[in-house]
Amino acid sequence: MPKSRKTSGLKKFVSRPLMPVFYFHFSNQGFPVSQEKEGQASDGLWVGKVADKVLEEFPNQELYTCAAGISPSGVVHFGNFRDIATSLAVAQELRARGKKARLLFSWDNYDRFRKVPVGVDPSFARYIGMPLTDVPDPEGELPSYARRFEVGLEKSIEEMGIDLEYRYQTQEYKSGRYAEKIAFALQHREQAADIQLQFKTDKGNQEKGIDPEEYRRTYFPITVYSRFSGTDKVQVLSYDGGTKLTYRCLVTDKVEQIDFKETPVVKLPWKLDWPMRWGEEQVHFEPSGKDHMTPGGSYDVSSAISREMFGRKPPVPQMYLFVGIQGVKGDKMSGSKGGAISPATLLEIYEPSLLKWLYMRRTPMQSFNLAFDTEVYRQYDEFDREVVAYQAGKASPAQQKILEFSGVKKGEGVPLAFKQAVALGQITQWQPEKLRALAEKSGIACSEASIKARLSKAQTWLNRYNPEEIIALRTAINTDYAATMDGKRRDQIAKLRVLLQGEVTSIPALDEHLYGIPKDPALDDKATKVAQRGFFKDVYNLLIGKDAGPRLSTFLWALDRAAVLTLLEI
RNA sequence: GACCUCGUAGCUCAGCUGGUAGAGCAUCUGACUUUUAAUCAGGGGGUCGCGGGUUCAAAUCCCGCCGAGGUCACCA
After folding, report:
1. Is the C-beta of residue A379 closer than 7 Å to nucleic acid chain B?
2. N or C end of chain A: which has fewer CB within 10 A?
3. ipTM greater than 0.85
């Protein structure tokens, strides 16, 4: 998998003769490394290999930092969440190996507001160029635009029980924490320019009209937010070699000198900001989307800057592909587009552990689809099968690991199948107690917790995204269908009415009677089956206008008896 | 222009450093005195995108091509 990753120089650090020492050291601490290694190989999970790599690049750290970060420029969508999920898996793996690991999450909210997303008042265009934390909340409630979108994700993260250590970049920058690093970058601005030039193509330079000499002379590796306009539309005029610089605000044409140690309106651009923070936070692992990981992209540039300027090895990277979505019309993935699907939206349909499981079970290099259509049945079913195997102690090591990373615990019992939650939820008016009673009556074994958890998700799934799947009792007798029925079949319906008018003691008893109605001594087994099938089809058509439906005994037992009897009056 | 991922059963995908093609769902058959959006057992189904190469041996490694999706070369 880590095929053609650029490892220029990196390999040299991890000299082979060190390996035995490495092993010895660990076994001294009571970690049977060699055995554990074999174990990892057998479970074959991507996360084990990544952790191997992290431990190889950064052996013997007190604390391992797995990072993730998102710029709150709009709704944080389900694609962004892969950043967190991937880092989470690696942190968990490191912990499983007895290491201390933290999951650091940076809100890049000191980034500039770049464009107004669909769904936000177009007049917000006047804030373009300002830091996201200085743009007001479109809904006028929260302190800032950034906060609006941070809150949504943070709530979902909490719901999923993920323990993140948050960093808010505006706060960090304003605290002056980075002032020295900014000065350092400015002092080495030619070097920063050179490194970036290495990654630019001649053709690109020609097209953009970049002259390397000119670029090197005028490049300042900073963004300044003008104190006059609040935006980054600024030209840096001079730098004193310390912490003072002079800039011209291009909006107001005013010029001033500031000491950015006292007036923190200066930010490093992404390709310096990123490696600077790797050092500041001692990051050992950070995944990123392919936009960063493409050769010559920001990871390459940032790595070079990290090594050559800041003198630190870059963290182990892991590229991930984007997540797809199906079953929802006009799919809009990008956070800067309207109608973006956030983890919060997903959590209305997926339970937290299932969602985490979907993100972590496959290698990040593989794209997968989230679904709002009947595909979720399959996902829930597959998940449940593994959970059941896990509860029984029969899950494979790989399955077990991912389930545990996802937060599944032993002794939670068998979950209610999502399909059943949808079917039975409808006939119990989505009431957990009613469903539990129904499940008990008809012999469905499932945990009470799962009923509670899944019923509301099933309801949302059905009503909001799959209304065509709704089973609704007809409001009037299906005379059209009844007209197609012969006397014998009508007779069966009449028998059913009699049955339902009497006392129904239990679902299995009702079941037996139902199968008994179409039985005829003159028919052999095969023919009986056909007759029974036909009978059920008739009942479904009369009640809900479809050829099939929920298991009939359960269905009839739960439905409003009077309404059913009316519909069967043909 | 460069690069990345993917292409294996009808569908969703496993197949890690090469050793006789796998799972789930779907389908079919059968069983439980019935199977309907709930059970169990069994069966069928693949020239592993195409063409070369390396090898005793290739889904797996190498080269080329085709197809699908995506990223960078502005900014983050």
Report:
1. no
2. N
3. no
